[in-house]
Protein 1
Amino acid sequence: MTGFRTLEGDRPLRLVQVGAGGMGRAWLRAITANPDVELVGLVDLDLDTARAAIADAGLEGVEIGRSAAEVARITSADAVVNVTVPEAHLVVNREALEAGLPVLCEKPAAPTVATAMVQAAIAEAAGELLMISQSRRFFPELRALRREVAELGTIGTVRTDFFKAPHFGGFREQMPHVLLVDMAIHAFDAARYVLNAEPVSVYCEEYNPEWSWYDGAANAVAVFEFAGGARYVYDGSWCAPGLETSWNGSWRVSAADGSAEWDGEGAPVVHRPDAGEPVSAEIDASAQELAGSLAAFVAALRIGRAPENAAGDNLRSLAMVEAAVQSAETGVRVRIDDVLEQARQDALALTDREDVRERLSAPAAG
């Protein structure tokens, strides 16, 4: 997006949160722990769920309702935090943005790149910030990895191994492309962050081991080409009992002047052969995960500088997922720009607003 309205003043920003389920309760904790914001409203289709969440959080004086715009009007809110399911993101975000409210929205931005593109265009037309909360970018250890990798010269390969065996039950075990669609965006977005570059194309294979308890493919191997020639390799499984990795996976970076490894939890280890033995990176213990995402949102609104995960920028992380799925389905290499261009065409068909269509009319940027 080209610009958005800033919020001046030194008082805490007044927030309305939409969504009071399990993830919603995690966001309530993040909001109440941040002195720069104040929760003034909670929206959920189930008002009893909202009331219970507020009571469990020990909060009082919070407006409850079913409409983000209405609760925001009653409370004179400054912004909205959207913690609904992805299928509801467009409706909630559009309502908030059209009411003149910036939005911090849980990932993924939408079920499809096209829908996410419409949301980004609505935000641009409204002159409001729409930020997607890719909260794993706010692991201090991941930020340390990016800092160290930037000093290793030209990058050849970044690799993520992700091996877990969760028995979720419910909808995930019936999802097609379950690993790619429900989990891989964390690693894909982190790869963009670590490489500080954009993906060009991907070749991906999916498969489902005979012991898998998922209907869809629980395993995937994807090789992305990034601008500049680096390759990002993702090798993952959601039915891998024993010797499991962390939820962030296990990372290795190979570059011209050395290598780095990160187990997804502790400090990255960096080895520059010319400098001696491997050393652990220093960690800056700043705001983490949801807290870090919220702090970045508030900072962006205060100073007017687009955050890392503004909706327009986040499109390429979501496009990496769609491209990987397309490659797995077709058996061919898929270009990211082709996915974005098809999404742009699909997005134009999703809206009849001329101001939004105008912003969608230009071909996707390379």
Protein 2
Amino acid sequence: MTVISRNPADPADVLLALPSPGAFAAADAVERARAAQPDWAYAGAAARSAALGAVADAIEAERTDLADLAVREVGKPLVEARAELARTVAIWRYYAQAPYEPTGAVHDTAAGPGLLLTRRRPHGVAGLVTPWNFPFAIPSWKAAPALATGNAVVLKPAPEATACALRLAELVGRALPEGLFTVVPGGATEGGALVSAADVVSFTGSSAVGRTVVRSATARGIPVQAEMGGLNAAIVLPDADPGRAAAHIAASVAGYAGQKCTATRRIVAVGAALDPLREALAEALRAVPVGDPADPSTVCGPLITETARNETGAAWQGLSVLAGGTLPDRPGWYAAPTLVEKVAPGHRLLREEVFGPVATLLPARDLDHAVRITNAARYGLVTSVHTADLDTALHGLDRLDTGMIRVNAPTTGVDFHLPFGGAKSSGYGPREQGRAALDFYTASRTYTLGSAGTV
């Protein structure tokens, strides 16, 4: 296999083409990381903190060029690419403070002299398998906490984001000892080898691949987390402002061509909200700027591959289209932001995550009905609820089977200092980001310290 990365806005522009290194390369990277990890774990909080801070500085110094690289390699609109780099810097700075956090607790013994201690220690080598859509932020929010807690890291990025990953590794490598952060390009072969060799695994990607990763890791008895997408709903209640709700939803449907696991795929309009929302949302989606991701005014750029563009276009065939429903005739792999309605139960758009700028408008009789519609999907990542009545919102929130709930806000958007993850088919294992990540990348040990004079 050859790893090929193309510019999705200009497929003739090939960023790189290199041979896949194979399973041995992944296993070798893990062994080199395992050799480097003990010294890093015992280097002390100050050394690890300073190194992660230096990574943040290096990324910040190159943020303009890195944003341009994300635009070119994965088609991310320039404004979003710049925001991702700002978030990436903030992630490394946040976790640079983590080495100073407590790693355990002291307890009294049940009887007699001595101490009981708990202490969290690193697993060893963290194997990270990441997607292409956030080529700097996702590897960073996995790698930074892993490194902060004393682990080494081996990263297997999606082939479409290989250039971004290699550039990130170059910058991280300036601040860390050799062998602590390694990128292994490639596909399923290299990813499978990494999962088979690492001591802890974090995955973000499709449900099909994620289930394979989980099975492989759990068979080995190692910790694993998997974030596997969403079929996210936005519930709009009759008292919500339709224009404001439509603006939030349109941004979540069409931003970055809908290529986010948190993108809105279903819009559930409750009662009298349906008609005004239909009109406002169709108008908002028609107004979304579609075009060259390097243009600062672009909101919806290209799909990542020709296959992704064609699958998105096929998803709305035969349906009632309220906005969009076209594949623009221009270089690159574009699809117009699209809203459909009158979709029959069991249709693909209500069962599967179509990774493109297309969403379905669904009517609901009342809030209880809206909750049932939302929960009917096998995914459960994030739901947004739009209403002027917080009491009404709270009435339905606890019955939603989703890992994250956002009120009067888009489904998209991540607060990296809080736990991130979903329920049902959207996720497996502990949450990532925030302090939850520090727990995931460490194992708890219990120590009993008895007195030397105790009989």
Protein 3
Amino acid sequence: MDKIKRHPERARTERAQLDAVLDAAAMGTLATVVDGMPWAVPLLYARDGDRILLHGSTGAGALRHVAAGAPAVLCVAMLDGIVVADTLFDSSANYRSAVVRGNLVTLDEDDSAGALSVLSDGLIPGRSREVREHRRKELAATLALALPISPGQWTVKVRDAPPSEPTESNSAWAGVVPMRSVAGLPVPAPWVAPGTPVPASVSRLVESAREDKQLAWRAGI
């Protein structure tokens, strides 16, 4: 992995720690250089073993640029808490972040179908088994890519701590405000007939988010 120089104590060096950060998020920012200018776009992704799956339209010129072999980097970050210190200078945030560099590989049609299902199930586990298979024209319109996770080409950084103890005695409150993402109740599309049941995958997704919230509440965070 690359060496982190700024706050090296926050670096995580185990591959399992990288996987944990990547698996906890669903969106990252893919960046490269196109015609000498910086280019970045937020994309949904899913980790599939030793590769990160991404996709976009075949009409996206910059995406075709990285598909052709231009070096790229995927950045992922999650805000876990606002760290409130006794001074603005010492205030901070608890977070998890990961950076993966490399060259993307374009997936062929056979691999694309499976990769797109993995991407969908990364967002809504089990959803791919509830719907029809991908159609050929849909696959033809989609550019499926994989970013290999290679040794020495990634970094992970985590802050998970209270604010630093003040150097001067004072009575100011200090602590951490935890931040969590939760799922709301599913909202049917306007054309869905009343009484149509919510798919099992969607119900499980909502229930899972509620369980996470309950666990956090019971832990006092």
Protein 4
Amino acid sequence: MELMSLYGLFLAKVVTVVVAIAALVILAVSLGQRKAKRKGELQLINLSEDYREMQREMRLARMDQAEQKIRTKELKKQHKVEAKQKKQRAKTGASSTKPYLYVLDFKGSMDAHEVTSLREEISAVLAVATPQDEVLLRLESPGGVVHGYGLAASQLTRLRQGGVRLTVAVDKVAASGGYMMACVADRIIAAPFAIIGSIGVVAQIPNFHRLLKKNDIDMELHTAGEYKRTLTLFGENTEQGREKFREDLNDTHVLFKDFVKQQRPSLDIDSVATGEHWFGTQARDNGLIDGIGTSDDLLIAEMENHEVIAVRYTRRKRFMDRFTGSAAESVDRLLLRWWQRSEKPLL
């Protein structure tokens, strides 16, 4: 009888352990599925605190051991006081005394697919921003497809419409579609040798018709609509098609110029919308930007009056997407290198 009771007790323990493990597995799977359903993750980084921490470390490194001990004790006391003040503000519902500067980054590729993350970041900022808050966009792009960069510029326009002051900082390049984005800002700051401008439209289309004809290969193209296809890769292009294609390019250029002029009314658009690009100091003289400086100097200066928060939206990628995305980024970097080394811009 005693043996049976011990066996029953042992069996009850085993069942309890199995049920507990099963519950944990179900919970883990459930959380994993919820996490998988999220398309991306929003990350917030307090750049002001990171900079203050770096300052503290650098100052301590310059002291001898005795001074470091004294300073470390002082910092501990200071941290306790600051923590107590934060707790009191949290209890009373009082906000930080400083307004916020939200920092966004846009390193644009040819197809401007980065706009997917940009729209999420802007939506997050607009959800909490006050009229005293500002946004700094660190922008790097040589431009690309019209519809992609048109959407990116429209996303930045949301900030202006929401009453949030926008500054764009260009350390390397904001040309063509990149400048279309930059001109939306209340203020544009660029490094002295950053590439600015290239307000123009270009398209290059190879044609293999003569090669196919030489090898007795026919290529048929059927369309409904006179201008459904103006130029083709494999068919024989006509002068009428070429003329229509050039007309479409000119129409796009007019829209581009009108957009820039609307954003920066004081700009002499006809003198700068020639497709040329300028370095930062030249761009300032031509009215394309408002000041010279790097994003680093701008950020450090703004920390005096703002709490600086970096906002990042990272999209989750499948393994194959990561592989193909890396290949696409390599091609983009190669094209950008050619663009920067060439005498005239490709975009």
